[in-house]
Amino acid sequence: MADTTVKKIICSSCGAEFEDTLPKCPYCGSLNYKGAEAEYLGKLESMRQDMQQLEQVPEKELKKKLKKKQKFVIKLLILLAALAAILAVIVFRVRYIEPRDARADYLWEKENFPILDRLYQEKDLEALMDFYEQAVEENRTIDRWEHSGIFRWLMSCRDAREYLALEQSGETLNEYQQALLLDDYWMMRGLEYSGGMSEEDKEYIRPYVEATLNSLADRYTFTAEEEKKFEDSLRNNYGYPRYEDCEEYIKKHNE
């Protein structure tokens, strides 16, 4: 039978008596080499037994456990990456994007908004679109103009007409250009769902939009399902189509 007698030792530091299996004196904390060694060997034995149990776990169960941990690690890495990206954007904006000059913006608007108002009253759409392109290129605050909501639809019309002009000149549109043209087509059809535009502005650009749509009338043939898909997108996104849907349609019908 194993000797179960508890042996006592005297602490060399404080003189207290304690069991020799303890890794240190419970009174003063001095190290007991014999007890510490026994504790270390016990931990090694416990680890060895855990490894044996792990080897006995069915492979399917082991994969399941590892997969759970893997998913957690992946989610954690994605979260850290997202936080790092947000931080990078904030740092970039703080360091490299200069604040707008409010006075310069005010002076530009005071000088140019009356010009835009005059072009609007004269219904000079081509001049309005040229003005808009220049203002965007110069990073001007043209979006603060009262009727700025018309530009997105006017520019879709202009882009569509330019693509049609390319075809008429004998050039073949690639898939990317075809998808952009289809995106413009549905953008024009989404005029009724547009947000941020007054009914007055909708009626103002409607003749130009409808004339451009008529030039595309025989270009597309949609199934009922495709028609509904695009219409739902316009309805849910304030008149904006999903570019991914346009790409999918073009790829499907070019096969």
Layout of strands and helices, then pairs:
Blueprint: E1 8-10, E2 17-19, H1 33-56, H2 59-96, H3 102-122, H4 125-137, H5 150-168, H6 175-189, H7 199-214, H8 224-236, H9 243-254
Helix pairs in contact: 4-5, 5-6, 5-7, 6-9
Record keyword descriptors for this entry.
single chain, 255 residues, mainly alpha, two-stranded antiparallel sheet, 9 helices, elongated, 67% helix
Written account of the structure:
It contains 9 helices and 2 strands, in the order ββααααααααα. It has 255 residues and is mostly helical. The protein is elongated and about 105 Å long. The N and C termini lie far apart (85 Å).
Uncertain regions spanning at least 5 consecutive residues: none
The rough form would be described as elongated
**Rg of Cα set:** 37 Å
Give the overall pLDDT as a whole number. Answer: 82
**Total number of helices:** 9
- In terms of structural class, how would the helical and strand content be classed? mainly alpha
Question: N- to C-terminal separation?
Answer: 85 Å
Q: Which range best describes the helical content: under 10%, 10-25%, 25-40%, 40-55%, 55-70% or over 70%?
A: 55-70%
Give me the oligomer status. Answer: single chain
Order of helices and strands: EEHHHHHHHHH
Largest sheet descriptor: 2 strands, antiparallel
By DSSP, the count of extended strands is 2
The strand line-up of the biggest sheet is 1-2
Q: In percent terms, what proportion of residues is strand?
A: under 5%
